[in-house]
């Protein structure tokens, strides 16, 4: 049985953080939500809320003393700055640290353009490994999820515009990819803390299901009852647009590089059976993708 009971979530008010806080509460953990100073985010009464300067080691340290684990959910733009949180966690004698790793397997992608956008995450893991060598009581776990499915579908990151009923299909549209819903990410984090030995000092890989752009398009049309407009493009064209955005300093280049990496023919972003940790973490092997799409369409239409 795990001796981890008190968990602090840094960046708890974001999309990933909210899902993780919800799951931790359902699993019976004592949760402390740490947000930036000036945040107006609210949480259930059972959550201890602390607003601090997350760029200050002393500020973070004061918020995480007495915690068994720290889960980082800081935004992508700040991922390279996790060392401050890590140093505070070590000084506070936190047993387990989960960096803000949620997304693609950036170790495998490190030589690609999207991987280069994630160099801060690689540097964080290098530092984590150094800390585990220095402190035998300290450990970490990363969580590779592939693209966020429900969140990405709603926001167009998967190539589908729910408002205009337009799909942008890259190459053949038949490249399979592993992808995960936000709630499942939260469940995985809670389960990791229930299985500390089996998940120590490594990246776990999870998914809600594997799919293709063409399958998603087919289900979107079936669930919406409408024929969608399809725009076909190539992975190289998507990458070229990303290059133009990068040259102008536009951070949206990351989304284009991510789409190129995930959806292009030959992408190979499906977890192999022996890599997938769903069974270890007691997650469903395959969630109902059609139900997820139905839910996202319903939520999207209710906000129009």
Automatic annotation (TrEMBL):
<dbReference type="Pfam" id="PF05368">
    <property type="entry name" value="NmrA"/>
</dbReference>
<dbReference type="GO" id="GO:0016491">
    <property type="term" value="F:oxidoreductase activity"/>
</dbReference>
<dbReference type="InterPro" id="IPR045312">
    <property type="entry name" value="PCBER-like"/>
</dbReference>
<dbReference type="InterPro" id="IPR008030">
    <property type="entry name" value="NmrA-like"/>
</dbReference>
<dbReference type="InterPro" id="IPR051609">
    <property type="entry name" value="NmrA/Isoflavone_reductase-like"/>
</dbReference>
<dbReference type="InterPro" id="IPR036291">
    <property type="entry name" value="NAD(P)-bd_dom_sf"/>
</dbReference>
<feature type="domain" description="NmrA-like">
    <location>
        <begin position="5"/>
        <end position="243"/>
    </location>
</feature>
<keyword id="KW-0560">Oxidoreductase</keyword>
<keyword id="KW-0521">NADP</keyword>
<protein>
    <submittedName>
        <fullName>NmrA-like protein</fullName>
    </submittedName>
</protein>
């Amino acid at each position: 049985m795990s001796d981890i009971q008190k968990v602090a979530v840094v960046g708890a008010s974001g999309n990933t953080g909210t899902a993780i806080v919800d799951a931790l509460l359902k699993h019976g953990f004592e949760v402390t939500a740490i947000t930036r100073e000036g945040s107006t985010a609210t949480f259930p009464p059972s959550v201890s809320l602390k607003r601090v300067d997350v760029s200050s080691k002393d500020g973070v340290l004061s918020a995480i003393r007495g915690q068994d684990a720290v889960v980082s959910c800081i935004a992508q733009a700040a991922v390279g700055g996790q060392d401050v949180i890590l140093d505070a966690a070590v000084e506070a004698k936190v047993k387990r640290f989960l960096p803000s790793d949620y997304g693609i397997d950036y170790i495998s992608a490190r030589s690609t353009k999207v991987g280069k956008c994630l160099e801060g995450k690689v540097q964080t893991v290098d530092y984590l490994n150094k800390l585990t060598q220095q402190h035998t009581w300290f450990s970490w776990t990363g969580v590779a999820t592939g693209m966020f499915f429900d969140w990405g579908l709603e926001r167009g990151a998967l190539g589908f515009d729910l408002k205009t009923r337009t799909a942008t299909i890259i190459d053949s549209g038949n490249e399979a990819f592993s992808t995960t819903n936000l709630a499942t990410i939260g469940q995985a984090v809670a389960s990791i803390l229930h299985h500390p030995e089996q998940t120590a000092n490594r990246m776990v890989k999870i998914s809600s299901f594997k799919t293709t752009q063409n399958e998603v398009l087919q289900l979107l049309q079936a669930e919406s009852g409408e024929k969608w407009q399809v725009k076909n493009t190539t992975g190289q064209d998507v990458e070229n647009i990303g290059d133009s955005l990068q040259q102008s300093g536009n951070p949206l280049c990351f989304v284009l590089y991510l789409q190129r990496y995930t959806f292009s023919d030959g992408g190979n972003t499906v977890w192999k059976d022996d890599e997938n940790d769903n069974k270890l973490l007691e997650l469903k092997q395959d969630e109902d993708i059609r139900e997820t799409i139905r839910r996202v369409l319903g939520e999207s239409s209710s906000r129009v």
